[in-house]
From TrEMBL, chain A:
<keyword id="KW-0479">Metal-binding</keyword>
<feature type="binding site">
    <location>
        <position position="82"/>
    </location>
    <ligand>
        <name>[2Fe-2S] cluster</name>
    </ligand>
</feature>
<dbReference type="InterPro" id="IPR036249">
    <property type="entry name" value="Thioredoxin-like_sf"/>
</dbReference>
<feature type="binding site">
    <location>
        <position position="87"/>
    </location>
    <ligand>
        <name>[2Fe-2S] cluster</name>
    </ligand>
</feature>
<dbReference type="InterPro" id="IPR042128">
    <property type="entry name" value="NuoE_dom"/>
</dbReference>
<dbReference type="GO" id="GO:0051537">
    <property type="term" value="F:2 iron, 2 sulfur cluster binding"/>
</dbReference>
<keyword id="KW-0001">2Fe-2S</keyword>
Automatic annotation (TrEMBL), chain B:
<comment type="function">
    <text>NDH-1 shuttles electrons from NADH, via FMN and iron-sulfur (Fe-S) centers, to quinones in the respiratory chain.</text>
</comment>
<keyword id="KW-0560">Oxidoreductase</keyword>
<feature type="domain" description="NADH-ubiquinone oxidoreductase 51kDa subunit iron-sulphur binding">
    <location>
        <begin position="329"/>
        <end position="374"/>
    </location>
</feature>
<keyword id="KW-0004">4Fe-4S</keyword>
<keyword id="KW-1278">Translocase</keyword>
<keyword id="KW-0288">FMN</keyword>
<dbReference type="GO" id="GO:0046872">
    <property type="term" value="F:metal ion binding"/>
</dbReference>
From TrEMBL, chain C:
<dbReference type="GO" id="GO:1990204">
    <property type="term" value="C:oxidoreductase complex"/>
</dbReference>
<keyword id="KW-0411">Iron-sulfur</keyword>
<keyword id="KW-0004">4Fe-4S</keyword>
<dbReference type="Pfam" id="PF22151">
    <property type="entry name" value="Fer4_NDSU1"/>
</dbReference>
<dbReference type="InterPro" id="IPR009010">
    <property type="entry name" value="Asp_de-COase-like_dom_sf"/>
</dbReference>
<dbReference type="InterPro" id="IPR010228">
    <property type="entry name" value="NADH_UbQ_OxRdtase_Gsu"/>
</dbReference>
<dbReference type="InterPro" id="IPR006656">
    <property type="entry name" value="Mopterin_OxRdtase"/>
</dbReference>
Length: 158, 439, 780
């Protein structure tokens, strides 16, 4: 179900915790699985759960609790914009509006070509860098003026 | 000016996060001294107590006292956890500490583990700053390779290993027992206390949890003495503190200052008000601290006691500055939406109450307010506060109470006129606040 | 001890008590939803907030430990204000349509809303709607009503042993759910219906069948296993509508297995026999009791007179009452025969020669909590004894270590720290190895009669089990149903007795039915050389009396048992049900009451005699079997059938006030043991599936639709499957000396290599006969 590479990465995470606490690695394991598959289908969650010897519903609880896990398919590039108050005061909403207009989609939508999904994020802990957005969960883009958004979209479209 | 860099000292180089740079800045000197002199753990805790270092995560609990709660003679495993799950709107200091000075946190944790006899530690890092998580992993690898972590640290009998654990998008995991649940591979739902983590923590074992900045302050305290650290602040408010300034200022960012520095000076450091506009209100300690109107704020100094006297909290030192273009109903609506979104759903008042608060504020903002809505908001917040498992219920309520209290006229105007007191074009000038989908 | 004052009342409570414990002690009711005495503390509903001296905020009584000198007010203004505040939050998103809710009238939220709710809602926003979940055929959902107390989640994790439900998503979007398309398959699942304080989880079979206030509540005792769970049977117009647990801490605590809870559907099924019937040639005629009884008595007398009493015997259900069993054996003996038995699934009766009493658990069920070592021999423990396993599961959390010797390693949802998995034919050798290990370790000698069985060398697993037992402070050894039905059951029992004696363990037999103990006490076994069940079913007698027995499903012999009975000249069948099989083998069918329509007594595995009375009027012309047997005794002019009530019958058997009852014994001193016969070929391991144990359960439709009600298959380990050239999913023909069955091969690595697990007590496998036999499997 999961690739050997992913399982190897999960093993590294499992090793961080006491030997009788494999479940501790579930957050990292779900993240690794999502990186491989693009999103977390139910069978992917099931596979992670059985790899870690935990009930499937317990893994699903985790996957549905933390909002960086995608329980539905997303585009090749998921862009999450923070619109929380501090960011909004420094143009977070403008950035989101600009992205919506450029991509022609609203939050939680994917462009017809499957390239881009737009998400609204909550505080990313980088309010000083507003407007802030995340590319595919892990790459943070700071001070995203319209020019920088243009540049980012151009780079990603390549 | 009272800018004073202890944690962010000498971070001007290119790759300041590397072990060699940290060593060049005098890093790990405190740890080496402790190992070389076999300093008794009690002496370390005494030194931290002398510094009057107070928890930098928001609660301001004296760190030395917290460390002394750990059962020294407990036979089994004991754990140490660092709370780098910074997700309270306005807060972004720990990210910079981990980005530029990760070894200060590692050294602080090793010293803490030595003092409390912990065999293993975890640094819980906010999921959204994943690059910082990666960098912290690199720093851990460097420290391990240098014999600073792992078995028999620096050749002594003391062993301690430290690992990074990432969050993945849940504000509540910043609550220390939710954080422990999360490390255990569960939903981040806070635990009822007592028992406190010092007796029943990670995997049911005694555990101490401190904030990133708290740990980052420890090496200085052990190297230069608690007294020295205390003197950088003011009595009962020891040391320097990082303040994260966001919102309507010219230079948002982190500023390390001595506790007790006037707010006006801090505002000046941040480049003053954007566009020279007038200050309207400040949320001084992260989004859950009560908002303080401009006139009161300008008289405050930045320390636990002064901000508390002004009716708010220093919290994590996240200062959200709002100017006259801000519609306070919209601002509150956005914050209420945040708490509604982030409530873990475990206990009744918060699960049900945060949605109720958001919906009422949303209605007011959208011209559907009713005359008794402000009384209703106050009543609902009263029914939430103090009745939940963790502090999120209070955190969601305090902004509502304080916004309604200090900016009641704007709310009343909204209810009566079905529109904002601050005209839309003025709002746009200062960056309009958008609020998530209604539900 | 700690001093505490609650609402002005002073009391002392044990260290570690919570405010809720203390309040319960003085009878101060604190409103609550999530708190449950048998579950971990969640403190999430916040309904039990109380005022505590010096505490700045109200504290949850369920989670707040008592400190010495604490003062608590549960009904002060501050406390009630907090409680009312919580109640308002609980109600804002809860539908206020109690009249159409199945929980109406027995809803904790509804009850408490009367005291703590306002008459009108301040919440004017839209209410939350949550999609329902399919939890299977037993539990219905109405998830919009859920108040997120998580009792159900905690139950599956903590009591049932497997987390089948969770609270997914977060905040207001939280939902209680199973994983995707999964159902809740626990054999204890029905308890979440009782635990749910609102109408979110209700009984599917009972859905909208009656309102709680329309139901009469009557006490009874479960007939389905040897525990004797206490029941509240709820009846409307003499029809059983629902069964709930009657709390009894010493027996079932506050729980019921699904079998005990949902079997009542079988009582109301269409195949109930409600009129006496007489066979005339190949057709059956309904008749009145007098005609039927006179016909039965006259013909029986004639056949016995013609063929001799030794050609007459009685086969009795192991969940018949003590009174029924006693009168039935009395009737047999009155007619001059000693052919009587209720142990239809037993195959080795050599223990009878040396037995000194009824085999039983050897200890009170409540003392399981004190055990720290337990060896279970030959048992599908969790499915055979759901609530006993639950008790062991709880004890395991407190340090009880459990070992198993059994051909399958099915998941008991509790840690098994040592295990041997012999083939059925290797069971004796396995036990002998453990005996040698404990004897060697303790330097004790083994009874001379057993030394012949001791192996030369000893497998490591046997040593591990021995070490586990010997390291215990308080240990027990139990023989399960599989061991007692084994072809060398007596030898297994004798070996276990010896191991127990060397290790200082308590020793007992769990028993497979409600009256596994009571049948012995009633004398429903041969006493003077008469034929036991196996003998009566291997070759036809001339006449039989059957009491609630379906021979092909209730006996070890399967189809051959049916044929044996069918070969008789005359069969009187006392039965609650009608079926093609029963019609084919009987000559007269007398409709007798199931447990709900008669008074009677069961003696549980711990030697507890529990009497019960009828909870409903007998359906149609049905009569209690004890009365039918009494009248038959009279019609046959037998002495001692002049009972006026069932208590008088019982009094001839046992003293209801004694606990445990007299005449219990597990020892088999002097037994002639038999060694293992090595077998060639694949051995069958036959379980009696949880919803196939007796004629009532087999007719309960919802249970039959549950996962555990699935039709038998051929379960084999991957290695066995490979060795036979089979693949999972293959249709196979299983053959024994007796017959064959078509089954699907399924992979199951919990089955010992060289074995195939094929369930019995099912019409599709009845032709295979014997519970342990050599089986050949061929792909078809």
């Amino acid at each position: 179900m999961l690739s050997q590479e992913s399982l190897k990465l999960i093993d590294v995470e499992v090793a961080k915790y006491p030997s009788d606490q494999k479940q501790s690695a579930v957050m990292a394991a779900l993240r690794i699985a999502q990186q491989e598959k693009g999103w977390l289908a139910r069978e992917t969650i099931d596979a992670v759960a059985s790899y870690l010897d935990m009930p499937a519903i317990a893994a699903f609880e985790v996957a549905s609790f933390y909002n960086m896990y995608d329980l539905e398919p997303v585009g090749e590039h998921k862009i999450t914009v923070c619109t929380n108050l501090p960011c909004a005061l420094s143009g977070g909403v403008h950035a989101a509006d600009y992205l919506k207009q450029k991509l022609g989609i609203e939050f939680n939508e994917t462009t017809p070509d499957g390239k881009f999904t737009l998400k609204e994020g909550e505080c990313m802990g980088a309010c000083g860098d507003a407007p802030v957005l995340l590319h595919n969960n892990h790459k943070m883009c700071s001070w995203m003026t319209t020019e920088k958004i243009d540049q980012l979209l151009a780079d990603l479209a390549k | 000016m009272s800018a004073r860099n202890l944690i962010l000292a000498d971070l001007d180089g290119d790759r300041t996060w590397r072990l060699q740079d940290y060593l060049a800045r005098g890093g790990y000197a405190a740890l080496k001294k402790i190992i070389a002199e076999s300093t008794p753990p009690a002496d370390i805790i005494a030194e931290v107590k002398a510094s009057v270092l107070r928890g930098r995560g928001g609660a301001g609990f004296p760190t030395g006292l917290k460390w002394s709660f750990m059962p020294r003679s407990f036979p089994g495993a004991k754990y140490l956890a660092c709370n780098s799950d910074e997700g309270e709107p306005g807060t972004f200091k720990d990210r910079d500490i981990l980005r530029y000075n990760p070894h200060s946190v590692i050294e602080g944790m090793i010293i803490a583990a030595y003092a409390m006899g912990c065999e293993r530690g975890y640094n819980y890092i906010h999921g959204e700053i994943f690059e910082v998580y990666d960098r912290f992993e690199e720093a851990l690898a460097e420290a391990r390779a240098a014999g600073l972590l792992g078995d028999k640290i620096l050749g002594s009998d003391f062993s301690f290993d430290l690992f990074a654990h990432h969050g993945y998008g849940a504000y509540i995991c910043g609550e220390e027992t939710a954080l422990l649940e999360s490390i255990e591979g569960k939903k981040g739902q806070p635990r009822f206390k007592p028992p406190f983590p010092a007796s029943y923590g990670l995997y049911g074992k005694p555990t101490t949890i401190n904030n990133t900045e708290t740990f980052a302050s420890v090496p200085f305290i052990l190297r230069d003495g608690g007294e020295t650290f205390l003197n950088y602040g003011k009595p009962n408010n020891g040391g320097t503190k990082l303040f994260s300034i966001s919102g309507h200022v010219n230079r948002p960012g982190n500023y390390e200052i001595e506790l007790g520095t006037p707010f006006s000076e801090l505002l000046e450091m941040a480049g003053g008000m954007r566009g020279g506009r007038k200050l309207k209100g400040v949320i001084p300690g992260g989004s859950s601290s009560p908002v303080v109107p401009a006139d009161i704020m300008m008289d405050c100094t930045m320390d636990y006691d002064s901000i508390s006297k002004a009716g708010s909290m220093l919290g994590s030192g996240a200062v959200i500055v709002m100017d006259e273009t801000t519609c306070m109903v919209r601002a509150l609506e956005r914050l209420s939406y945040f708490y509604f979104e982030e409530s873990c759903g475990q206990c009744t008042p918060c699960r049900e109450g945060t949605g109720w608060l958001y919906r009422v504020v949303h209605r007011i903002e959208h011209g559907l307010g009713r005359p008794d809505d402000l009384d209703l908001l106050n009543s609902v917040t009263t029914n939430i506060m103090g009745r939940t498992i963790c502090a999120l219920g209070d955190a969601a309520s305090m902004p509502v109470q304080s916004f309604v209290k200090h900016f009641g006229d704007e709310f009343a105007y909204h209810i009566e006129h079905k529109t904002c007191l601050v005209p839309d074009d003025v709002q746009r000038e200062g960056s309009k606040i958008y609020v998530g989908p209604s539900c | 001890m700690l001093e505490i004052e609650i609402d002005g009342k002073q009391l002392q409570v044990a260290d570690g008590s919570t405010v809720m414990d203390a309040a319960n002690q003085v009878g101060a009711y604190i409103p609550h939803f999530c708190y449950h005495k048998k579950l971990s503390i969640a403190a999430n509903c916040r309904m039990c907030l109380v005022q505590v001296e010096k505490a700045p905020k109200p504290l949850p009584a369920c989670a707040t430990p008592v400190t010495n000198g604490m003062k608590v007010w549960t009904k002060s203004e501050a406390a009630v204000k907090a409680q009312k505040g919580v109640m308002e939050f609980l109600l804002i998103n809860h539908p206020l349509d109690c009249p159409i809710c199945d929980q109406g009238g027995e809803c904790q939220l509804q009850d408490l809303a009367v005291g703590y709710g306002e008459s009108k809602s301040r919440y004017q926003e839209e209410k939350r709607v949550v999609f329902n979940k399919n939890l299977g055929p037993l539990v219905a959902t109405d998830m919009t009503r859920c108040i997120h107390c998580t009792r159900c989640v905690r139950f599956t994790q903590e009591i049932a042993g497997l987390m089948e439900l969770g609270q997914a998503f977060r905040g207001e979007h939280s939902e209680i759910m199973p994983f995707v398309e999964k159902t809740v398959d626990s054999e204890l699942s029905g308890n979440i219906i009782d635990l749910c304080p609102v109408g979110a989880l209700t009984s599917k079979p009972f859905r909208f069948a009656a309102r709680t206030w329309e139901l009469a509540r009557r006490k009874s005792v479960s007939p389905h296993d040897s525990l004797g769970s206490n029941l509240i049977v709820q009846v409307k117009h003499d029809v059983v509508k629902r069964v709930l647990p009657l709390e009894n801490e010493a027996i079932n605590e506050c729980w019921l297995s699904d079998r005990d809870r949902f079997s009542y559907e079988g009582l109301n099924c269409a195949s109930r026999l409600t009129k006496p019937m007489i066979r005339q040639g190949d057709s059956w005629q309904e008749t009145d009791w007098q005609t039927a009884l006179e016909f039965a008595a006259t013909r029986l007398k004639a056949v016995v007179a013609a063929a001799g009493a030794e050609e007459f015997g009685a086969l009795l259900a192991s969940n018949a009452t003590v009174e029924e069993l006693y009168l039935a054996q009395k009737l047999v003996r009155g007619l001059g025969s000693d052919n009587v038995d209720f142990r239809l699934r037993q195959t080795d009766f050599s223990a009878d020669a040396v037995s000194q009493g009824a085999p039983w658990l050897g200890m009170p069920v409540a003392e399981i909590a004190d055990l720290n070592r337990l060896l279970v021999i030959g048992s599908f423990f969790r499915k055979d004894h759901p609530l006993l396993a639950q008790r062991v599961r709880q004890a395991a959390k407190r340090g009880l270590k459990v070992a198993s010797i059994h051909p399958t390693a099915d998941d008991w949802l509790l840690p098994v720290s040592a295990r041997m998995q012999p083939k059925p034919s290797e069971m004796v050798a396995a036990l002998a190895a453990v005996l040698k290990a404990v004897a060697d370790a303790e330097s004790k000698s083994v009874d001379a009669a057993l030394t012949v069985l001791l192996p030369a060398d000893m497998p490591a697993e046997a040593k591990a089990i021995a070490d586990m037992l010997l390291s215990g402070r308080q240990s027990a050894i139990w023989l399960g149903n599989f061991a007692m039905q084994h072809a060398q059951a007596a030898t297994l029992r004798r070996l276990a007795q010896e191991i127990a004696s060397i290790t200082g363990s308590s020793f007992g037999v769990i028993g497979d039915a409600a009256n596994s103990v009571g049948g012995y006490l009633a004398g429903a076994v041969p006493a003077t050389g008469g034929k036991n069940a196996a003998a009566m079913l291997s070759e036809s007698l001339k006449s039989y009396v059957l009491l609630n027995v379906e021979p092909s499903l209730d006996s070890a012999a399967g189809e051959r048992a049916r044929a044996a009975v069918a070969g008789a000249d005359f069969v009187v069948n006392l039965t609650a049900f009608n079926s093609p099989e029963l019609r084919a083998i009987s000559h007269v069918m007398l409709p007798v009451s199931p447990f709900t329509e008669t008074s009677g007594t069961f003696v549980s595995c711990e030697g507890r005699a529990q009497s019960f009375v009828a909870v409903a009027k007998p359906q149609g012309d049905t009569r209690p079997a004890w009365k039918v047997l009494r009248v038959m005794g009279n019609l046959l002019s037998l002495d001692g059938f002049d009972y006026n009530d069932s208590e008088a019958v019982r009094a001839d058997v046992l003293d209801i006030t004694a606990f445990p009852v007299a005449n219990l014994s597990n020892t088999l001193d002097g037994l002639t043991v038999s060694g293992s016969a090595a077998s060639a070929g694949i051995e069958r391991v036959a379980d009696v599936p949880i919803y196939a144990t007796d004629s009532i359960v087999r007719r309960a439709p919802a249970l039959q639709r549950a996962r555990d009600g699935a039709a038998p298959a051929a379960y084999l380990s991957a290695a066995t499957m490979t060795s036979l050239g089979l693949n999972a999913g293959d249709a196979v023909e299983a053959k024994t000396e007796q017959g064959s069955a078509r089954l699907v091969a399924k992979a199951d690595d919990t089955v010992a290599d060289g074995c195939v697990r094929i369930a019995s007590a099912h019409e599709t496998t009845a032709a295979l006969g014997g519970l342990s036999a050599v089986v050949t499997l061929e792909r078809v």
